[in-house]
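Case 244 in the screening queue. Each case pairs one protein sequence with one candidate compound; here the compound is farnesyl diphosphate. For every case the pipeline is the same: read the inputs, emit a complex structure as tokens, and attach any notable structural observations.

Predict complex for case 244.
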Amino acid sequence: MKVSFDHRPGRPAHVAIIMDGNGRWAEQHGLPRLAGHERGAEAVRRTVTAACEQGLRALTLYAFSEQNWGRPDIEVAHLLRLLSAFLDQERRELCQRGVRVRAIGDRSRLPASVCAALARTESATIANSGLELCLAISYGGREDLLQATRALCEAAVRGQLRPADIDEQRLGAALGSRGLPPVDLVIRTSGEQRLSNFLLWESAYAELYFTACLWPDFDGEALRLAMAAFRQRDRRFGLVRVAG
Ligand code: FPP
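Case 244 output:
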């Protein structure tokens, strides 16, 4: 499906979200942690719909970090099941909305069922021109920078690249996020204020927005508030504003 973008100034092209607080939401509601993740998956559905309606070009969601592998097996398995279910259940709707899906992160650690669901959804949505939905799964910013560095070194050893030719563009093109616009706005829910190894290169000049809202309560209105806060920011990218 072909979708054209509304390039209004002040609108972030790429929003990245650290979806935090599922466990605390569950605790506050007297439910097991896994129920918090289930409600978190519903918030993902709402947020993707809102991102399409609000005209975002790219949305990256931190769904499962490299470090999350260290959580109890039952929680890891549940999160991976929710991811597969999201990819399979939402594929039709995502296609109808013109969403193009991709994943970043280390797929070699993922179970075959998750890889297959990812491949099905990526190939079903590849020709879409609407929202670029990027799911960070088994992802770490440092780990992505390391694999990119290794790939560039290997190309240099093969004689395909001179070290002096390695610039921001080449390094950016070796990252999982290649082709996506730089991150304009990072949102983190649950009141925590840190990046937790998320999109370290891509967020170099991103505005940071922290909200106390726990991820399962996030919705289109919460996204609108973050976008409104973004419009108030004075982005200078290290330059100075010239008077007049
Ligand atoms: C952080 O909350 C959240 C995660 C580690 C996982 C995010 C996963 C989802 C929102 C659901 C599945 C995703 C998709 C894309 C369908 P936490 O468990 O660290 O919360 P806490 O800090 O309150 O314990």
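Case 244 observations:
- The radius of gyration is 18 Å.
- Residues 19-24, 37, 40-41, 44, 61, 63, 68, 79, 82-83, 86, 135, 190, 215 surround farnesyl diphosphate (CB under 6 Å).
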